[in-house]
Structures are given as structure tokens and as C-alpha cells.
């Protein structure tokens, strides 16, 4: 729960605002199978919340130096297009919480491990990009999550001290990144559960984005003219 209104809110994208992690898991498993590799849902877990360059290292280490990561990603992109086109569904409550933060006049941004082209396409397609003051991606920093670079860059772009901001994350590596940057963080679990480590790093664990929105409204009164469900 929140006791103070944050000076800025920094949203993760995949798994937090967009219900994309399940799509990534399904299509990567399909791409790996097409290349002759067996991949389970459990095998996908260490890749969640990690930038593409780190995923490359992990999968090459697992499958050997001859594993063609770029081919796998190309197949995965084709499968995504065939099955989903440009659709990347919003998580429940995503649009409302973004609109609420905007209505409260709180600066807001995105800090995502995705590349710029994907972030702009998905946020734009789902109508969230106009509500964001800044969008920081893996292309904008030297190191991705769980290092703190993305959150430090987002706070700087929003012209706020990291400790005055609030991060919203769904993944363990995202929580670690925000905490390492000194940004208070609330976890809204998606594919990964809240562990004891996560509870020690977070302000709170929320059941969903609607719960976080309620906390923000209570902490940032007055609440007239806010969007309603």
C-alpha cells in the first residue's frame, strides 16, 4: 500500500501493461520446436524480464555454440505475426491505471527491456503511448534489467529523484532493477510468483493493477474527475 503520492510513476511494459509474456512463451516454444529443440514452460522462466542480449547468452549456453539464436527469433517473429498480428492485449486494469495517473497529473513513463521498435509499436497500437511522458527501452541504456540503468534513465528523463518515483513491475528481474536504482517498487505478479526475496524488495505485492490504482487514488487526493471503471 502507498502512504505518499509518488512524484512519478514508471511502468514496466511486458507482463505489467501488456499481456505479452504468455505470447512470448508460447511462440518461443513453437520456434524452438521448429528448430528441433524441446523447450518447456519451466525452461522459459529464467528468460522472463531479461533483455534480448542476455536471453541470447542464456540460450546459447544451454544449447551450445552452434545454436542459431537469430534464426530462432526470426521464426518466433513469424509465428507471432501468424497467430496474433499486431495485437498485444492489455492486462486487466492497464488502460485505467495509466489514465488515472495522467488525470492525477503525475509524470509517467515506461522502462522496458524490449527494443525501441517493439515498445513504440505495441504501446502505440494499444493507445498507451500518448499517455507516457517518456519511454526508455533496452536500446537506450548500456545494461538491461536486472541492472538499474533503465530505472535511473527513466527517473532522470522524468526529472525526478529515483527515491521519489514509483515503479510497477511483474517480474523478478524488473523488481531487482528498480530496487537497485533506489526506486520504490510494487510488484503485480504475472507469470512469476512473489517470492520471499520479492517481498523484501517491494513496497507491496498487489493482486492486480486495479488494486494499485486504488492505492494511488487514496495517496494522491483530490480524486475528482478521475476515470471510473
From TrEMBL:
GO terms for molecular function: hydrolase activity. This is HAD-IA family hydrolase. It comes from the Bacteria. Gene3D superfamilies: HAD superfamily/HAD-like, Putative phosphatase, domain 2. Keywords: Hydrolase. It comes from Sandarakinorhabdus fusca.
Amino acid at each position: 500500500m502507498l502512504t505518499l503520492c509518488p512524484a512519478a510513476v514508471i511502468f514496466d511494459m511486458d507482463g505489467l501493461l501488456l499481456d505479452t509474456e504468455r505470447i512470448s512463451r508460447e511462440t518461443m516454444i513453437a520456434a524452438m520446436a521448429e528448430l528441433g529443440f524441446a523447450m518447456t514452460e519451466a525452461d522459459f522462466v529464467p528468460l522472463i524480464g531479461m533483455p534480448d542480449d542476455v536471453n541470447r547468452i542464456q540460450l546459447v549456453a544451454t544449447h551450445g555454440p552452434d545454436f542459431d539464436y537469430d534464426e530462432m527469433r526470426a521464426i518466433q517473429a513469424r509465428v507471432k505475426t501468424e497467430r496474433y498480428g499486431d495485437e498485444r492485449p492489455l492486462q486487466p486494469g492497464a488502460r485505467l491505471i495509466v489514465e488515472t495517473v495522467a488525470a492525477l497529473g503525475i509524470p509517467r513513463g515506461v522502462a522496458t527491456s524490449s527494443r525501441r521498435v517493439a515498445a513504440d509499436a505495441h504501446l502505440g497500437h494499444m493507445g498507451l503511448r500518448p499517455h507516457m511522458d517518456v519511454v526508455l527501452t533496452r536500446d537506450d541504456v548500456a545494461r538491461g534489467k536486472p541492472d538499474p540503468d533503465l530505472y535511473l534513465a527513466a527517473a532522470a528523463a522524468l526529472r525526478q529523484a529515483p527515491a521519489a518515483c514509483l515503479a510497477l513491475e511483474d517480474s523478478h528481474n524488473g523488481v531487482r532493477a528498480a530496487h537497485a536504482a533506489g526506486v520504490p517498487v510494487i510488484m503485480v505478479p504475472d507469470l512469476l510468483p512473489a517470492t520471499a526475496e520479492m517481498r523484501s524488495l517491494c513496497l507491496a505485492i498487489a493482486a492486480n493493477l486495479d488494486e494499485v490504482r486504488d492505492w494511488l487514488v487514496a495517496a494522491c487526493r483530490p480524486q475528482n474527475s478521475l476515470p471510473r471503471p
